[in-house]
Every structure is written in structure tokens, then in C-alpha cells.
């Protein structure tokens, strides 16, 4: 399966809807999408991972690199994992937790919540 990235804008937020496998082959696509958003001045990015069904260490690496990039430019990065999956253990959430990096990210149940500055992230 390939990876697809669709971009939408919600106010100040750029939402990157990611679908497929996030691995060694496809991680550069996500990295480039985040860099492209920053290059045009979009410093608040949501990565909607609700349709990512596989994530390896390369995928985790691109998430951490994206977080670092957003922090360096004074921006914000939020992840979307389905509320049920984030609580009960979606694949991406399990990988992040197993590697001990889940706490680094603000995770939301859906992208509507992620772009709402009043919404609270899900607990780690």
C-alpha cells in the first residue's frame, strides 16, 4: 500500500490527512509535506494519522523531526489518532507508547478537536 497525503486548511492550522503505511519508503513524503507547510509560513500543523494502519521506526522518526521543526519555528504540532484507538491502542499509538515518545505529542481524537484551541489533548 502507498501513502497518500491530503492537505486542508482550518484557520491558522494546516491539516495533513495521512492514509496508508508510514514507513521507511513513505516517511519522506510526510517530512516533505510538513516542510512545505512551514516554507509557505504555515507554522501550526495537524498530522491526521487516523487512517495510518502501520508505522515503523522511520515513521516515528519523521513525527519527532516534525515536532522539532515546528518547535524551532515557534509553531505547533498536533497528532490525530481516533479517540477509541488512542485510548485502547491504535497501531500508531502503541508504537509511540512502546518507544516511550507518546508523551512528546499533543494527541486529539479527531481533527476538529485538534484545530480547536479550547480542546484538551487526550492523556498519554
Give a written overview of the molecule:
The chain is of the alpha/beta class and 124 residues long. It has helices at 27-39, 57-72, 83-88, 91-98, 111-114; strands at 4-10, 13-22, 44-55, 76-80, 106-108. It is 38% helix and 30% strand. Strands 1-2-3-4-5 form a five-stranded mixed sheet. Helix 1 (27-39) runs parallel beside helix 2 (57-72). The model has no long low-confidence stretch (mean pLDDT 90).
CA-based gyration radius = 13 Å
What's the arrangement of strands in the largest beta sheet? 1-2-3-4-5
Which sheet architecture does the biggest sheet show?
5 strands, mixed
Integer average pLDDT: 90
Helix proportion: 25-40%
Based on secondary structure, the structural category is: alpha/beta
Order of helices and strands: EEHEHEHHEH
Number of helices: 5
Distance between the termini: 29 Å
Instruction: Tell me, briefly, the overall form.
Output: globular
Instruction: Give the low-pLDDT segments.
Output: none
Determine the strand fraction and express it as a percent band.
25-35%
How are the elements arranged and paired?
Elements: E1 4-10, E2 13-22, H1 27-39, E3 44-55, H2 57-72, E4 76-80, H3 83-88, H4 91-98, E5 106-108, H5 111-114
Parallel strand pairs: 2-3, 3-4, 4-5
Antiparallel strand pairs: 1-2
Helix pairs in contact: 1-2
